[in-house]
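Usage example:
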Amino acid sequence: MNDHNPSRANRSARRRFAYAGVGAVVLFVAGTLVANYKLLPYLTGSPAETSQAEKNKQIAQQARQKLGEERQAWQNDPKADPPRPPTGPEGYFQPPQEHEIPDDEFGQAIRRGREIFFNTGTNAREFAGNELACANCHLDGGRKENSAPMWAAINNYPAYRGKNKMINTMEDRINGCFTYSMNAQSSPSGGPPPPGHQVYKDLQSYFYWLGDGAPLNEDMPGRGYPTMQKTDQGYDWQRGEEVFVNNCAVCHGLDGQGQKDINGRYIFPPLWGPHSYNWGAGMHRVNTAAGFIKANMPLGKPFSLSDQQAWDVAAYINSFPRPADPRQTDEGISLEESREKYHQHMGYYNHSLHGVTLGEGATPERWERFVESWRAAGMSAMNQP
Amino acid sequence: MRSFMTRGRFALLTTVIMAGAGLVLSPGQAQEKASGARSDAKSLEKPLAAVYYGQAAAQADTQSVEGLIGQGSGDTWACASCHGDRGQGAENVPRLAGLPAGYITKQLHDYANRRRLNDNMQYVVEGLTDDQMAALGRYYAEMESPSSARPGLSGDLDRGRELALQGDWSLDVPACYSCHGSSGWGVGQAFPALAGQHPSYTYNQLASWKSGRRANSPINLMHNVAMALSEHDMRSVADYLASLPAAPGGRQAGLDTPAPGQLPPVERAASSQQGSADHE
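Running the assembly step on the lines above writes:
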């Protein structure tokens, strides 16, 4: 630049400017490509990770595959180790995936069972006496751990049950679900499916398939609902009301009667009243409901409530009228006799709450009267000054 | 010399700007800005607010807001100028037709009190009265218009369908339909229709819930769902939902919710302890 020549400098500057322009275009194109094809992670050496969902799916698939291999090995050599239960990402039993349902007559039975499980009121209409479905209390179609999964139940029956003091087959157990949780006394047929009915066969086909590879007569992790430790304060339905309003009512309604979508289908099930489970169902026990709620509610927020909140809100839900325990009405015994005989557990059976005696069946007329007086009282203790 | 250096700097600057523009302006990127993000994903949300607003909307006079919708008012532009004359929305502007009245009204209130952030919406709700918000909610809830949304995010429709119908319980994600209805047409006042919504909008909302920028869903239900979803999942489910027919209008205007007086006062519900939010 010592031999200063304006025209050369000018040319040189123009050239540089042109280079810079070309460079800009190149960089622009490169930037566009990087952004459009999401190349940045590769350039910076941190490729996009496999999502947790994909990892979980891989673990599940590998576990099921390993089961098949171990079975084959055992077939080939009786001295080989017997197959071990396949486990998923969190260590719980891994049931087969939907695409593994066999494409044959058995597969058809599995699918029918699955449809009954999800849409009980439609596919087992004759025997459903309320607006619930199996899948309301057994989440993810009976697959979810700590939500009374069917894979943990199917290989544990026949089993002796204190509830009826005898050995129960799986069919007996399902019969109990229809009788109490599905309130079959109010169903079109007036009762649960008769012995040997196709509904049992189909449901058991579905359960049998879900339990493929699960051990026999083992108390598997994730079975039933978690057992709740008692708290110092005990449970209290009045404390539970606030928990309910703040955590449950947005879905189940302040009146606990659930919500339908515009197709007329219940999306959030009724928790009490004439369209819910009856006084013989396991869920009316405060401890059972508390375990279910703790592990599964609000939906998508498992284990988010404190133990105390779960106990209290379980008490609140079970402090309202619901259909009668059919054992009490069938045997023609009093509520007091029924309490002595069948209700030696945590709950409000035969207590007087909200101005009614609990355990008396919530027939439509009685329920209407109750709702009227409940509304007149402001529906909620929280409404009172 | 001096002028030469300036040109050189200018060229360098141009280069940088254009390269930057290449990154920023490239099509297909619909990220909501993270700036202004609030850290109140755990802030308390009145869980029944939409139900109350639904009751107010059921009483509202929709004729009173027809001017706002069609012509706007003063410096404020008309609703229809962005959301369309059939409430159908476009791209990142949501479809409003057929959403629950209580839900829409609540969103307007949330924009006003900055529970939900969007510069345009904050500007237009500034002068609105409670009655006008309720009337707007009812107006759009009763409106019926076919879906104008189409999948456009290159999502995996099978994965989207799986999330919508079954969820992914390995991630503690329930099915969309387990709260938003068996056709994705919404439930009650608090759970809006998702079917027929524009995919960029749905995607952006999920991303906002995930980042904490949007934090106004009842008991933080959406925050928990979005946190568990991958980018791929969000695009997939947004695309799948966009492929469905839209909810019919008119049935969710809040007319079927219990009459006022049957619910405890909202302030009491709001001030009481919110267990779930505290135990995440």
